[in-house]
Specification:
Blueprint: H1 2-7, H2 11-19, H3 23-30, E1 43-44, E2 49-50, E3 54-55, H4 59-68, E4 74-77, E5 98-102, H5 103-106, H6 111-115, E6 118-125, E7 128-131, E8 147-149, H7 155-159, H8 164-178, E9 194-200
Parallel strand pairs: 3-4, 4-9
Antiparallel strand pairs: 1-2, 5-6, 6-7, 8-9
Helix pairs in contact: 2-3
Length: 203
């Protein structure tokens, strides 16, 4: 019931979502020729059909895209995200510096904490931030930055006793997003990791 209330989908539509490999297209077919609205970010109300996720972000829409987004990118307008838990103290190198910030450890139950966990951010001064433009190290170094929704437990850190709080919380998160809604709703087992692409930057 809670899922239905939060998503805005009818019971029949949720059954379709739980039992079809391409559920959003099936729902579109159910309503072909009719105008109806959806607040879900994966729905294109103008053209009356589903689209890839984008715009606003919250824990439920991120979870929904993990279940049914089909590995498509989720384009995020970061101006719609609350970053008020951050300030200059999170960027000890000052204006212009870039840090990999663990939002979950600062404010665990915030949208940014739950959805992004830790994320690469740049400090612009006056308590303003933006998502970094490029990766700074590793195989993606110098390439356009994206974040990944995957609840990745860093087992190397666990084995070395590092950042246990982060990895334990991530493990519980992984269980939560991967359990099915019901044992017989086979399409709700697991999900597909996907990229967050950041559309609008704070200035």
């Amino acid at each position: 019931r809670a899922i239905l209330e939060q998503s805005g989908y009818t019971f029949d539509e949720v059954v379709v979502i739980a039992t079809h490999l391409n559920p959003m297209e099936e729902i579109w077919k159910m309503h072909d020729g009719f105008e109806f609205d959806r607040e879900y970010d994966g729905y294109d109300a103008e053209n009356n059909r589903p689209q890839a996720g984008g715009g606003d972000i919250n824990p439920f829409s991120a979870y929904w895209h993990y279940k049914f987004g089909g590995k498509t990118d989720y384009h995020v307008d970061i101006s719609q995200v609350d970053w008020s838990m951050l300030s200059a103290k999170n960027f000890p190198m000052g204006v212009g510096s870039i840090e990999q910030v663990n939002i979950f450890s600062i404010k665990p139950f915030s949208t940014a904490g739950i959805v992004f966990g830790d994320i690469r951010l740049q400090y612009l001064g006056n308590n303003q931030i933006k998502v970094a433009d490029l990766f700074g190290s590793g195989p993606q170094a110098g390439k356009p930055y994206f974040d990944t929704y995957n609840y990745n437990v860093r087992w190397g850190e666990v084995m070395n006793g590092q950042d246990l709080g982060r990895n334990i919380a991530t493990g519980f998160g992984w269980i939560a997003v991967n359990i099915p809604w019901h044992p017989l709703l086979f399409n709700t087992y697991g999900g597909d990791q996907y990229k967050f692409i950041f559309m609008v930057q704070e200035q």
